[in-house]
Write a structure and sequence with these properties.
With 212 residues, the protein is of the alpha/beta class. The protein has one domain: TIM Barrel (Alpha-Beta Barrel), CATH 3.20.20. The chain is 41% helix and 15% strand. It is built from eight helices and nine strands. The strands form two sheets. Strands 2, 3, 4, 7, 8 and 9 form a six-stranded parallel β-sheet that branches. α2 packs parallel to α8, α5 packs parallel to α6 and α7 packs parallel to α8. The longest helix is centred in the middle third of the chain and has 19 residues. It is globular, with a radius of gyration of 16 Å. The two termini are 26 Å apart.
């Protein structure tokens, strides 16, 4: 199993200020989608979620919101939650502090007009899951919760099969899991295979798909 597929306890212990899973007694799991909004793909995801009466959280790239505001508004209209994924999908480990923080704030500028009136939570997920401690502390000070994951589908990895991506999810999901998918061009092939099957399995197992 890939290290990142099922996040281990040591990593969670080392970074307790990040949210890795959300314990609950209602059998809830938390589907998340990174990198959108993306034409056609995000809209297809919304259809799949609607078919199974599932809610999710979309960690959006600010540049994609700027280019596709109508799709972004469809996500909100469907009752899903929105999170910040930086404006340009920056990798924190490779980006100077001030540039990274400014990029987060630039994405925030696009989110705030939509989220502030309805008092939505401020959620942030670092692209690639890679962020420096100083960057994370500054983002926490902005009022964000940093949302990581418990289960990673690996749908973006074109070197593994769609069946492997599906097994990454089904073999590791438990109540409280935060599961990562990507509504991106790169992940599209695997996503089309695994998302309907995942949703059907979760319904069969009586999981409740909730937004964060």
């Amino acid at each position: 199993m890939s290290f990142w597929v099922k996040t281990n306890r040591i990593i969670k212990w080392l970074f307790p200020s990040y949210v890795w899973a959300i314990a609950n007694k209602e059998n809830k799991v938390y589907l998340t989608f990174d990198d959108g909004p993306t034409p056609e793909i995000t809209e297809w995801v919304l259809e799949q979620l609607k078919n199974f009466d599932a809610k999710a959280t979309f960690f959006c790239i600010g540049n994609n919101i700027e280019k596709h505001p109508e799709i972004f508004e469809k996500v909100l209209a469907a009752g899903h939650v929105i999170g910040n994924h930086t404006f340009n999908h920056l990798k924190g480990w490779n980006t100077p502090f001030s540039i990274y923080l400014d990029n987060v704030k630039k994405c925030d500028d696009y989110l705030t007009p939509y989220l502030a009136p309805v008092d939505c939570p401020k959620l942030f997920r670092p692209p690639y899951g890679k962020i420096k401690r100083k960057q994370a502390n500054a983002i926490l000070q902005l009022g964000y919760k940093i949302i990581m994951w418990d289960v990673l589908s690996m749908d973006f990895d074109q070197s593994i099969t769609s069946e492997q991506c599906l097994n990454n999810v089904l073999n590791n999901v438990t109540a409280g899991s935060i599961i990562v998918f990507h509504d991106s061009v790169k992940a599209n092939k695997n996503l089309h295979y695994i998302l309907p099957k995942t949703l059907a399995y979760l319904k069969e197992q009586q999981f409740v798909c909730s937004s964060i």
